[in-house]
Amino acid sequence: MTVHLIKLSVGVENVRHLEQIQAHRLADAKRRGVAPELMHVTRNTPRRAAEILKQGSIYWVIKRFIRARQVIADIRQVEGREGRPACALVLEPGLIRTEIRSFRPFQGWRYLAAEDVPADAPPGMADGAEVPAELAAELKGLGLL
User: Fold this and answer.
1) Which domain holds residue 46?
2) In this predicted model, what pLDDT tens digit does every residue of 78-92 receive, in sequence order?
3) How many folded domains does the chain comprise?
4) Rounded to a whole number, what is the distance in angstroms from the first to the last CA of the chain?
5) Residue 120 neighbours by CB under 8 Å, 6+ apart
6) What is the pTM (predicted TM-score) of this model?
């Protein structure tokens, strides 16, 4: 069974902003002569790594709403800050927009069961159209999201 992860994207304004950050990280890696891989480094290794690697994704919460996902290509042990062991979630480049779903704040990452994930955005919404956070919150309050 596939399991996914969910993570707050702190300091990110919208999906385009996250795309820009990741593009900058890839370009920076190329400039430094390092393999251009997108990695999210975390202290804890998921115990359900084998299930995540069966086509699992990380779902990004931006401004209190799940807005996009990214396929997890690998999970590796790496050296973190101050030489401590850490875990790198290696991500496929490219964000896949999802239907917008509100999500409460939390710290770190959480597991997200396959039956709880939002659907990918319909083709018309996947081209970059984005609901502003304030409007999404209002629509959620009205029960429309």
Assistant:
1) 3-141
2) 998 888 999 999 999
3) 1
4) 28
5) 69, 96, 97, 98, 99, 126
6) 0.85
